[in-house]
Structures are given as structure tokens and as C-alpha cells.
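Dear colleague,

Following up on Tuesday's group meeting, I ran the structure prediction for the two-component complex that the binding team flagged. I've pasted the input sequences exactly as they went in, so you can double-check that nothing got truncated or mislabelled along the way. The C-alpha cells for the whole assembly follow below. Feel free to forward this to whoever is handling the docking comparison.

Inputs:
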Amino acid sequence: MLPFFAEEFGNAASRTHAFGWRADEAVERARAQVAALVGADPREVVFTSGATEANNLALLGSARALRRARGEKVVRVVASRTEHRAVLDPLAALEREGFRAVLLPVDGEGRVDPDALRAALAEPALLVSVMHANNEIGTVQPIGPLASLAHEAGAAFHCDAAQSAGALEVAALGADFVSLSAHKLYGPKGIGALIVRRRAPHARLEPILHGGGHERGLRSGTLPVALCVGFGRAAELTRELRDGDAVRHARLRDRLWARLSAELPELALNGPPPGPERLPGNLNVSFLGAEGEALLAALPELALSTGSACTSAKREPSHVLRALGAGELRALSALRFGIGRGNTDAEIERAADLVVAATRKLRALSPVWDEVRRA
Amino acid sequence: MSAYPPEVLRHFRDPVGAGRLAPDAAGVASAEARDPEGGQRVRLHVRLGADGRLDDVRFQAFGCPVTIAVASAAVERLRGRARAAALALEPAELAGALGLDPEQARLAELPVRALRAALAYLAPPP
């Protein structure tokens, strides 16, 4: 990747000189590597600045194109309540354009009930968007049946797979559009892709960025060659390492959960139990009686998240945890752990020590902990 | 860089008077204030001595580091104060001492509200 920042400075869109050809070759190699990771055709890969842009392109670009194709009469777009902000916010933008967003409930572990989707599709809809794996609670959603329901109802299907690009085949997913992100695969930040399936009779897509017609007219703008190369290499490495990674991350995650749940009473696991229906490196726990932001601040050595980044006084509990039916106190006491390629056994033991100590300290001064114990 | 002012972190790491007082002891009362928007809570426990001074004050808190810091800073100031002087404590004094931004400053109301409610349980001296 690095040579393409300086020595190899060609523009992949320059067709008239060798610098451009070499850049174009590098981009096309990267495109093939990304396609191979998810079982797509390289011609289906549209490079974007990340999964956020890929989601915007899929949602805004297909909703607008499909509404026009269907005579401006259909305006509904269906998604799940636990989508990432990079889906929910474009949906809000669509509502300002006269579309109507319909949000589906999820069960206690974060899965969309196919019957709820079937009911939502009783009225015509343009597009359904359901994420493959949830970024906060790790729920891996069976996408195939939902995509089939959408297609039976004449709607297109988008899947945000930013969290799980290493663990899917687009053909099995059945989605028309799939969003990917490089940095979730240890690639560079600032690059992602939208997979735009070629045989997708229900789908239409128009660009949201105009100016030059790059990426087969779907995403104008000079490609960041170095980032594309980095994304491609990350995809290739993920293909090589994913089976081993998944086993190792799950083992470390299970060890962390085993220690926390053995040493601390009154924990609540948010999301599915560890297993095939949960991302291997994800753990989300409510430390009832201890507040999430305070836990984070007490654990500066650990790079964690409460799920709802917020350092101001207006603390909004995670919309994902609320969608599971978690009460305010459970949602406010949640902490999300992400275990990845760099983590070691020793780090997990150290993390468990620190989290146990911080939880005990905060519970000792918590009026909510008194209530939890009484209950 | 931390998102919290240094004084907030100092109180958060080493809070003054964390804990509770036995509720049925003479001169002891406690009350809790909650932030309606963010779910933060501060409970203050006070013991009013025969001389009319707060001879012990403790706090419990549930919330972000700012919540814990405002409670700790309140305890630090309230211990030993006479009732009237304790009631004169204003949220702005705590917010200023801790360097809170305007949005965080709302949380400084919690220990002040809890204190006033707790003292209301204890009859003023004749």
C-alpha cells in the first residue's frame, strides 16, 4: 500500500500513460481481492470512502431510483431498529425527501422476526435494509430468509456487513447491495465498498456523487489508489486468517466472559449467547449498578466503548440495547468489548482484572447497586 | 486526551466521602436526586450534630465521572458547615470549581438538590 502514496503516484483513471496503467492495475487487483473475500464478481465492487458512504449510496441511491421506477407512488423503506447510525441517519434524510422509514422490532437477542418483516411488506416497499452482524451486541442475523421475503414483495435488499465482511458469501446472503469497510478488516481507514449485485431484478441504483463517472458511473471521484491497495491486501489476509481468527477471538471472548461472570454477580449479557449466532470477538455486558461511562473512565488502559459514545451530561442509552427491551439502568451500565487480531491471553486476563476491580469500586458507591442487591 | 477536566478526574479517582451513613442513627438523613434526562443519580447522607453542624456527609452516585465528581466535591465543601451555610451551597460553585462545561454543569444541581431534601428531614434547631 505505502508505495502508492508517493513513488507510484499515477491516477487509476488516467488511460494515456504508464503511471496511470500501473495505478489502474493495482486498483483492479484490489477489486478482485475484495470480491474474492465475499464471493462477488470484481465488477460488482464499487469503492467508496467507507461503509458509511456505501450505506448512503445503497439507501439514498436505490430508494430514489426505485421510487422513480415505480411511478413515485411507493415511498416506504424498511429497516431494523438496531441498524448502525450510518443506516438510520440516511433513512432520516430520506424521510425529509418524502420517503417513509418503517423500523422493525427485534427479539431479546437482536434478531429481526421474519413475520414482522412479512407484515411490514404487506404494504408496498422499495427497499429493505438489515445488517448482517450488529456492531454493539454481535448478533449475526440470518439474512437469506429476509432477503427472500423482500424480493417476493418486489423490494430490493441492502445489507450492512461492515462488521462481518470476513464471514459472508454474497450469494448466500441474497442481498442486492452489501456494504463493506476496510478498517474492520485491519485495512486502512477511509475506504470501503458497496457490492452491487449484477443479477438483481428488484434493484435499481443511481449515484449520490456526481462528477466524472468513475466506478461505472456509480461513484464519481478519483480513487485513492493506496487505500484501495490496502483494502485489497486486508481482504486477502482476512481470507487467509479468518478461520483461525474466529476460533481464537471466540476463545478469548469466552475466557473474558467466564472470568467476569465468575467474579462479579449480577451481570447481564446483551445479545445472543456466545456461539455461531454471535460475532466471535464481541462481548457486551451490563454491569448492573455500575454506570458505563464511569467504567470506561476507570479503565483508561482498555480501549472500550459503551455503545453510545457520549461525554456530555445528556446520556442517551444505546438505541440497540433499548430495542432489545433493556431498561434504562441495564442500558446505562453496558460496556462493549471487541477482541481482535492483536489481543493476547495475557491482555484478556489483565482486562478481566481491571474490569472486576473497577466494577467493584463503582458498585461500592452506587445507590443503584443497593437496589439491585435488594431486588 | 481525557474528555474530563482535571478536577473531575481527581475526584473521580479519589472521591471524598463515598459511602453511606446508618439510616437510623440520631441526626442522620439521606435523600436522592435524579437527573430526568440522563438517568444520573446522587444520594447524600448527612449527620447533623448537636451543635447544628454537618459533622458527617457521605455520598452515593450512579453516573458518569462528572456525576461522581460533583457529589465528592459537594461532600468536601459541606463537612463541618453549619446548616445555613450548607444550604447556601450553589450548583454554580461546584461547576466552577470542577471546570464543568455548560452542559455538564447541570449535574452539579444533583448534590445540592439531594442535600436540601435530606436536610428537610431533619428539624431545624429551635
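Strands of chain B lie at 28-34, 41-48, 54-62.

Cheers,
M.
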